[in-house]
Design goal:
50% helix, eight-stranded parallel barrel, TIM Barrel
Amino acid sequence: MKQTTKLRELLSQDKLLVAPFIYDAFSAKVAQHVGFPIVYMSGFGTAMTMGYPDVGLTTLSEMLENARRVAASVDIPVIADADTGYGNAINVRRTVQEYERTGVAGIHIEDQTFPKKCGFFKGKAVIPMEEHVTKIRAAVDARTDPDFLIIARCDALEINGWEDTARRCRAYINAGAEMVFVDGIKTVDDIARYANELPEIARIYNGDLVPTNHVEQLGFKVMIHRGSMLAVHKALTQVMSQLHNTGVADSALYSTREEVADLLGLADIYRMETEYAVT
């Protein structure tokens, strides 16, 4: 079954899909190993692996390269960040077609100006609603697989408030997007208002302000969670600081070489070495 079709089937079920942020093929494999049904390839995380903050410095080709590796590494659907679509509506057409070829199951395209910023950073700006409507229309028209999921992300909340955010989300759905993602939610009250303002629309929640069961009760279809990605920074800092400051690192803080190698498929390599050995 295609990953796009698998994602559609998962979304048709009456339960919340929780997708951890992942930033490369390795983190995607960990997510699959512990049992998540889908993963979310983060633009923040992709920029992080390149040594940049999430402020629009990553290019389409760099995002595609990461998406291709991630999709090839796991057997579960991948939803990927496609930033602003990397240009106007015509650029968006190519963006959709290129992402389809990577093997991801869907993407979201946001209504920020270029260069964009992480939805929680200062200094964001959004394009006119009508312009993003044309980009969503172009995205829907461009896909060759009808199961490829087009998600409209809206970043207008902090800038223009809830009334404009809800108006934009409905317009993006009318343009053909099948799900909306309001980014920059910073309070529990805003989570509830997000649900109450748009009860008729399939919604993504990005955050960790409340537990997953609470998000499910509010009727969200997908919850993406940043914790796994940010935990990497804390764990690395802790182990490296210990080693630097004391000359030894507590091995209880990290996995064994064998555990990592097993996750990466070393047993399959050993099997193939035997199967294809020259005798």
